[in-house]
Backbone:
């Protein structure tokens, strides 16, 4: 044991025979670790922000649909009335109180919104304003006027792009036209077909624009409108019915657990309870692609770090061939020469990791507080996938830091075996020749 410590001490001293070269190499390798930590932090941060915003513009962390609605989007597939009450009771129970942020029942349909100047197809969303404020970001993105009032039975909020197309402002009147729900008529109910003659016919209502929102997402700003749930239900001829219950949680990680608990509560009811990964599969798949690309880039960084260590240690070994020959002549065994070189390599790696952690955690702190403003890179307009928030804040967990340091250390250790093998194979008397 004492012999090994002596060899490691000799290896440490060998590093400082050329201090400038050692520090430059350690700095280069430390920058590799810094780049690795920054890229992982920004990746995790961007995913966290994207999920947080996407679920609040979309279906929430967990969503409840009628069976088959996810695949077909059929308006006739409405939720049973008891599902909404059962869900509300369960989510507001003592066990779920610390998990829940909000629930919002919604009635979704397509329609035609027209003004005196123009008309446009829209996606209608009937909501309860108080509940929707806790779940959606649209109430927070109002740029003109006000969001829907809980006491209102009528009114509508529309996107900025849709308002521009219809040439309307706050206070203007618009007409919403849609098709009433066509409830399937069974044989037993066929005698009442005359009383249901209005079902499936076009219905319209006059609405006043309460507010205009801007999300930055063209598909939402140009097509989505929100109106009070009773107004939407009356228009579609389905009082007390909805086709979606959106649930927002405090933590995204609780989504699978909450979905599983809701499925148990609604056993036997023809509904489907989906997490955001199931209700928005395209977004989930984009995360998989992002992570795969990031792993490839991190692999390139690790390869650069490894080659840097290999080049430095191998050059030191080749330049000290005479020295290793002299050590062999004095009685050092090949294994001891290899241990000395590996100790030198590990010492260089330790210095590099220390510098990398200082630089990496400093950069991480900056990006976690100030963020990375993507408008620096996209002067004109941001890509559609980034418009939720142009500033990305880094999020780096302790597990990510530990795994990054461990991978770099392991890579450097494995790579140091080759220079150590070269030193151990030093042959006498050729190594003692002075040229």
Residues:
């Amino acid at each position: 044991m004492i012999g090994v410590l002596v060899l490691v001490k000799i290896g440490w001293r060998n590093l400082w025979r050329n201090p400038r070269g050692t520090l430059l190499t350690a700095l280069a390798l430390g920058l590799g670790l810094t780049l690795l930590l920054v890229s992982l932090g920004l990746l995790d941060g961007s995913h966290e922000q994207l999920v947080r915003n996407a679920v609040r513009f979309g279906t929430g962390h967990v969503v409840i649909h009628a069976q088959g609605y996810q695949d077909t989007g059929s308006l006739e597939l409405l939720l049973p009335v008891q599902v909404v009450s059962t869900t509300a009771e369960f989510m507001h129970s003592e066990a779920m109180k610390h998990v829940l942020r909000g629930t919002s029942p919604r009635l979704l349909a397509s329609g035609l919104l027209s003004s005196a100047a123009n008309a446009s197809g829209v996606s209608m969303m009937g909501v309860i304003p108080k509940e929707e404020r806790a779940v959606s970001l649209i109430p927070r993105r109002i740029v003109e006027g006000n969001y829907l009032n809980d006491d209102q039975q009528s009114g509508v909020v529309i996107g900025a792009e849709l308002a521009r197309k219809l040439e309307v402002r706050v206070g203007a009147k618009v007409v919403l036209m849609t098709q009433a729900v066509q409830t399937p008529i069974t044989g037993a109910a066929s005698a009442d077909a005359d009383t249901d003659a209005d079902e499936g016919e076009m219905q319209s209502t006059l609405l006043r624009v309460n507010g205009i929102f801007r999300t930055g997402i063209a598909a939402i700003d140009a097509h989505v409108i929100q109106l009070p749930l009773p107004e939407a239900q009356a228009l579609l001829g389905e009082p007390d019915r909805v086709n979606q219950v959106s649930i927002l949680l405090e933590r995204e990680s609780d989504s699978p657990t909450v979905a599983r608990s809701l499925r148990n509560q609604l056993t036997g009811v023809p509904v489907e309870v989906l997490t955001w990964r199931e209700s928005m599969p395209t977004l989930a798949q984009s995360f998989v692609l992002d992570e795969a690309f990031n792993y490839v880039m991190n692999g390139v960084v690790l390869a650069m770090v490894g080659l840097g260590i290999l080049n430095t240690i191998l050059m030191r070994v080749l330049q000290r061939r005479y020295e290793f020959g002299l050590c062999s002549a004095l009685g050092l065994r090949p294994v001891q020469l290899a241990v000395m070189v590996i100790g030198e390599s590990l010492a260089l790696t330790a210095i590099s990791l220390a510098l990398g952690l200082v630089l990496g955690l400093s950069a991480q702190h900056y990006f976690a507080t100030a963020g990375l403003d993507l408008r620096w890179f996209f002067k004109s307009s941001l890509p559609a996938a980034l418009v939720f928030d142009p500033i990305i804040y880094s999020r780096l967990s302790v597990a990510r830091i530990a795994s990054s340091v461990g991978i770099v250390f392991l890579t450097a250790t494995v790579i140091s075996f080759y220079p150590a093998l070269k030193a151990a194979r030093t042959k006498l008397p050729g190594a003692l020749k002075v040229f």
